[in-house]
Specification:
The complex is a heterodimer of chains A (about 120) and B (about 120).
Chain A (H helix, E strand, L loop, with lengths): L4 E3 L2 E4 L5 E6 L6 E8 L3 E9 L2 E4 L8 E7 L2 E6 L8 E8 L11 E2 L3 E5 L1
Parallel strand pairs in A: 2-11
Antiparallel strand pairs in A: 1-3, 3-8, 4-5, 4-9, 5-6, 7-8, 9-10, 9-11
Chain B lengths: L9 E5 L4 E6 L5 E9 L6 E7 L4 E3 L3 E6 L4 E6 L8 E9 L10 E3 L3 E6 L1
Parallel strand pairs in B: 1-10
Antiparallel strand pairs in B: 2-7, 3-4, 3-8, 5-6, 6-7, 8-9, 8-10
The chains are: A mainly beta (about 120), B mainly beta (about 120).
Chain lengths: ~120, ~120
């Protein structure tokens, strides 16, 4: 298995532009999570999906952020318009459902480093 | 990803020594705990987990101890190697009030482990 795949690895954009981050979870994982990591705030959960349905988006900073999961193998996180304070590393993670007899530990992707100038 | 903050607690050990990384978790209702390792430029990687009905769990060179009385979690690494240098995060999952066990993981701020050759 190739693990959780995120693209792009690095993104530099100008303030006001739209940014789309992409994620392919591990096949068979029913849960998908989007996290943001900064030096000041650490790892913050933005939103998570179960079976492609958004369950909790209370961590999404504001209306400029949106996430979709059109099918079990793909999710996007979009920021429109982007601002310099959105600069961070964005991680996608996926996991098995609890009670599946398997570890509940998330598998993280390698992240997308976003820089908004 | 640059997960190391300017004020992350740092533990410096000599190669071959044992390391103990501590974590105080916040919620007495948490029923599942995980330790993650994050190397520079990578996403967090699952190390070991433990459920709240256990006090200790051992893996390969790693042991996690859980003290629910004082809400304390520790990760012990035996015979620490240079490859163990990373930021280590503990994470807790809270059991939801309706009895389900699904919930997102809450990550601690992390501890930087530095191994001196």
């Amino acid at each position: 298995d190739a693990g959780v795949i995120q693209s792009p690895r690095h993104e530099v954009t100008e303030m006001g532009q739209e940014v789309t981050l992409r994620c392919k979870p591990i096949s068979g994982h029913d849960y998908l999570f989007w996290y943001r990591q900064t030096m000041m705030r650490g790892l913050e959960l933005l939103i998570y999906f179960n079976n492609n349905v958004p369950i909790d988006d209370s961590g999404m900073p504001e209306d400029r952020f949106s996430a979709k999961m059109p099918n079990a193998s793909f999710s996007t996180l979009k920021i429109q318009p982007s601002e310099p304070r959105d600069s961070a590393v964005y991680f996608c993670a996926s996991s098995f459902p609890p009670g599946a007899g398997l570890s509940y530990g998330y598998t993280f992707g390698s992240g997308t480093r976003l820089t908004v100038v | 990803g640059e997960s190391v903050g300017l004020h992350l607690p740092t533990l410096s050990v000599q190669e071959g020594d044992n390391s103990i990384i501590n974590c105080a978790y916040s919620n007495s209702a948490s029923d599942y705990f995980i330790w993650y390792k994050q190397e520079s430029g990578k996403g967090p990687q699952f190390i070991i987990d433990i459920r709240s009905n256990m006090d200790k769990r051992q893996g390969q060179r790693v042991t996690v101890l859980l003290n629910k009385t004082v809400k304390h979690l520790s990760l012990q690494i035996a015979a620490t190697q240079p490859g163990d240098s990373a930021v280590y995060f503990c994470a807790e999952k809270k059991r939801l009030s309706y009895g389900g066990s699904q919930g997102n993981l809450i990550f601690g701020k992390g501890t930087k482990l530095s191994v001196k050759p």
